[in-house]
């Protein structure tokens, strides 16, 4: 029997793949558990429409992420920090502080999207990478200054 998988299944394939299995396996296990459906003309068409819709949504998200990356490239944020002797910074600038500064500028970015390898512990100018989409990484210019 020819079926369409509705989810990834280790021994058969990935979601939306069409595979051939024994009739009993499909009727008694895969279809009742919601893992697969029969590969009829209507079901194939329904899955194709679902995939096209999913593809369009993904393209829209990608375009939005690219537009946001362009806006962030033009943006510059400043974070004042307390310093001691010889301009040694007390504490550090974390992704949480960067996210708060971005929010003040009108950009809703989660701190987990900010890709700091380690907190910033010195005065200076930094290009901070921000993961906006699996394929798009934006950068924002960060100025760490004395307060």
In short:
This protein folds into 2 domains: 2-63, Ribosomal protein L9, N-terminal domain (Ribosomal Protein L9, domain 1, 3-Layer(aba) Sandwich), CATH 3.40.5; 64-146, Ribosomal Protein L9, domain 2 (Roll), CATH 3.10.430.100.
Descriptive overview:
With 147 residues, the protein is an alpha+beta fold. It folds into two domains: 2-63, 3-Layer(aba) Sandwich (Ribosomal Protein L9, domain 1); 64-146, Roll (Ribosomal Protein L9, domain 2). It has three helices and six strands; from the N terminus they run E-E-H-E-H-E-H-E-E. The protein has helices at residues 23-30, 41-74, 95-104, and strands at residues 2-5, 18-20, 36-38, 76-81, 124-133, 136-146. The strands form two sheets. A three-stranded antiparallel sheet has the order 2-1-3, with no helix packed on it.
Helices and strands, with pairings:
Elements: E1 2-5, E2 18-20, H1 23-30, E3 36-38, H2 41-74, E4 76-81, H3 95-104, E5 124-133, E6 136-146
Parallel strand pairs: 4-6
Antiparallel strand pairs: 1-2, 1-3, 5-6
CATH architecture name of the largest domain = Roll
Query: How many β strands by DSSP?
Result: 6
Distance between the termini: 71 Å
Based on CA inertia axes, which overall geometry fits? elongated
Category by helix and strand content: alpha+beta
Rg = 25 Å
CATH domain class name of the largest domain: Alpha Beta
Could you give the order of strands across the largest sheet? 2-1-3
What are the segments in which pLDDT stays under 50 over at least 5 consecutive residues? Answer: none
**How much of the sequence is in beta strands?**
25-35%
Number of helices: 3
Total count of domains:
2
CATH-assigned fold name of the largest domain: Ribosomal Protein L9, domain 2
Question: Any idea what the CATH superfamily of the largest domain is called?
Answer: Ribosomal protein L9, C-terminal domain
Share of helix among residues? 25-40%
User: In sequence order, what are the helices and strands, one letter per element?
Assistant: EEHEHEHEE
Mean pLDDT: 93
Largest sheet: number of strands, sense, barrel closure: 3 strands, antiparallel
